[in-house]
Amino acid sequence: MHTMSFQQTAAEPEFPLPLAALQRFLCHVLVNQIPDEGLGEVCENLRDAWDFYKSRPPAPALLESVREEPARFAGTYERPVFQATEE
Question: Which of 10, 61, 65, 82 has its CA 20 to 30 A from that of 53?
């Protein structure tokens, strides 16, 4: 049997757990609740998911910062008339 415990404090944590860490914890809790006769099926489903995700290219890294560039006015122009004919 595995045991995990967390202490909850009234204050917000300085470094909240990433969503992926919370999801892994939830999966651990759920798998721990599966009766022994269901573990084979759970393992098979996890293997299928693992096979699917291991062959995918990694997700692109998120931009750490965004550089702002002020807009420059380039002038005005007259838009050409668009005509559509009905058939």
Answer: 65
Contact 28, 2 (CB under 8 A): yes
What six digits make up the tokens of 27?
Answer: 């999966």
Query: φ and ψ at 4, to 5 degrees?
Result: -130, 140
* pTM of this structure: 0.47
The confidence score (pLDDT) of residue 31 equals 94
CA distance 6 to 4: 7
CB atoms within 10 A of CB 42: 13
